[in-house]
Predict the structure.
Amino acid sequence: MKKILIVNGPNLNLLGRREPGIYGADSFESYLEKLRRQYDGTAAIDYYQSNVEGLLIDRLQEGGFGQYDGIVLNAGAYTHTSVALQDCIRAIETPVVSATCTAARSSATGR
């Protein structure tokens, strides 16, 4: 069975409440429940969210050396600004895929 870590950055704990016209009305927990049901028996999915850049880096480093087959990272606003997260991703061994809740160009205004 594959082991996947999903890491979400700042403000993603507010999905479902924050700007539902842009980000939708579902919480991330509801998406996570759907993912776990869909991949039951084929993938174990762990989840971590933090609004703190250093804690995101700590979690990526903890999971980045063989504990997981892959990491899905939605760094939120840090996607546009964090050199430290970019360095961390380059330093770990586990493959990291970047994800967003909206089209990157449409949410990047002013960033």
Observations:
- Residues 28-38 form the longest helix (11 residues).
